[in-house]
Amino acid sequence: MESTRLSKIERLIQKELSEIFRLETAKTHGVLISVSTVHVAADLSTARVYLSIFPSGNGKKILDNIKANTKTIRFNLGQKVRFQLRKIPELNFFIDDSLDYIDHIDDLLKKDEPKE
Question: Does this model's pTM top 0.70?
Fold first, then answer.
């Protein structure tokens, strides 16, 4: 079972990473990155960060850019949470494609609807 402390840390990391990405994407018009979920390991060594990227067509390229700058992002996160966390977890970024999956299911359901 997940502890209360661990869920608070996940929410803190999600909030601060969202702010970091908001500030960075304000410079590039037409791109929106939101942090949908953060899962932190029990020993606080790693964090799996799921990102929702709009437009999703550029998602792979943007994710590669984020992965290339992971150390800078982790440093910025450390600056923001240095008084709340002693150890900053290693960040692993993944694309959250749940919205694309929902759209795909909706398209399939609409295609199979009987026409009157």
Answer: yes
